[in-house]
Amino acid sequence: MGRIEYKQYDRFLVAVDCIIFGFDGTGLKALLIKRGFEPEIGKWSLMGGFARLGESIEQAAQRILVNLTGLEEIYMEQLHCFGELERDPGGQVISVAYFALIKIDESNQEKLESHNAKWFDLKKMPALIFDHKDMVRVAKERLQQKVANHPIGFELLPSKFTMQQLQALYEAVYETSFDKRNFTRKILSLGVLQKLAEKEKASSKKGAFLYVFDKKKYKKLESRGLSFL
């Protein structure tokens, strides 16, 4: 039987847009680029592109992320499909949005500069093209939902981190403050952090103990439905 083609149906462009979050120790950041083609050339945009024939939507998202950051092992998750008729003045384009989490200090700075990419604090975002502001908003809401019950927040931290850095991350995600003692007690009670003998001494003379996230312990406890907050 020959290949069936749906020639009688209209065809649309399918784009992939990536909301890339990072954390600099104090604030939650989004990675934006200066758009290099019309429409809206020169304006701030999410990193994106059109899906190609022969690749899945997820493969397209991975290609776009690697091309921008130089990182291949990136946490990413499909977020939402944006398909309003007038969302792109260049034509009817359906965009599948993904959000991704990366460690800022591990990204390839030369690649970022070649794409005119820059990190922006979520509280100081410039105007964005099309419906990209809505994409960032929806991605932030998803991130807030996920970090409460899943360990994806560790994707934004160095492999070794202090309790202060971990608390600062959660405070940045939720735009609030937590009691230090209660936060530490809650996190340590989960049993998924390993305390190291090593200390981080850049922030104080006394230094703060470093921790690592224990993925093996988490896997054993995952079925219990852990709550990180």
List key phrases describing it:
alpha+beta, seven-stranded mixed sheet, Nucleoside Triphosphate Pyrophosphohydrolase, 6 helices, 229 residues
Overview of the structural elements:
The protein has 229 residues and is α+β, with helices and mostly antiparallel strands. The chain has two domains: 136 residues, Alpha-Beta Complex (Nucleoside Triphosphate Pyrophosphohydrolase), CATH 3.90.79.10; 68 residues, Winged helix-like DNA-binding domain superfamily/Winged helix DNA-binding domain (Arc Repressor Mutant, subunit A). 29% of the residues lie in helices and 27% in strands. Strands 1, 2, 3, 4, 5, 6 and 7 form a seven-stranded mixed sheet that branches. A hairpin with a 7-residue loop joins strand 9 and strand 10.
